[in-house]
Amino acid sequence: MIDNPDQIERLITRLTAVLPLPARITAELAATLQTEKHPGYRKLTCSVTSISYAGDDGGIVCKLDFGDESDRVVYTSITHLRFDPRQPLAREIASYQKHRVKRLRQQPV
Fold first, then answer.
1. N or C: at which end does the chain have fewer Cβ atoms within 10 angstroms?
2. What are the distances in angstroms from CA 60 to CA 36, 81, 82?
3. What angle do CA 87, 94, 69 make, to 5 degrees?
4. Cα separation of 9 and 71, whole Å?
């Protein structure tokens, strides 16, 4: 098991209470979005507008809003986002991200 169900439930409840949450996308996600030729996704900043859990395989998934008027929707793992350390829950998010990435690396291929 990659995620701790109790930790996930608490974190999702707390994250949902503070939405929308400003975030920055990682360089890897930006490159992926740009290869799909979506002009509205050239921005590196966004707002997380919805949170859900995609099970142990997917982890916490965030719906992103880039502030444009496009009808396109982007969902990504919370591990592909960076948050201002001054934000509430930033430490909890970073702890979850670090733990999840570490556990994923330990999984057999």
1. C
2. 23, 11, 14
3. 60
4. 30
Task: Write the pLDDT tens digit of every residue in 32-47.
Answer: 888 756 655 678 899 9
User: d(Cα 52, Cα 75) in Å, to the nearest integer?
Assistant: 10
Alpha helices in 1-109 (DSSP H): 5-17, 27-35, 55-58, 90-106
Residue with tokens 């201002």: 84
Q: What is the CA radius of gyration of the chain?
A: 14
Strand partners for 50: 63
Contacts of 31 (CB under 8 A, 6+ apart): none
The vertex-43 CA angle with 77 and 13, nearest 5°, equals: 35
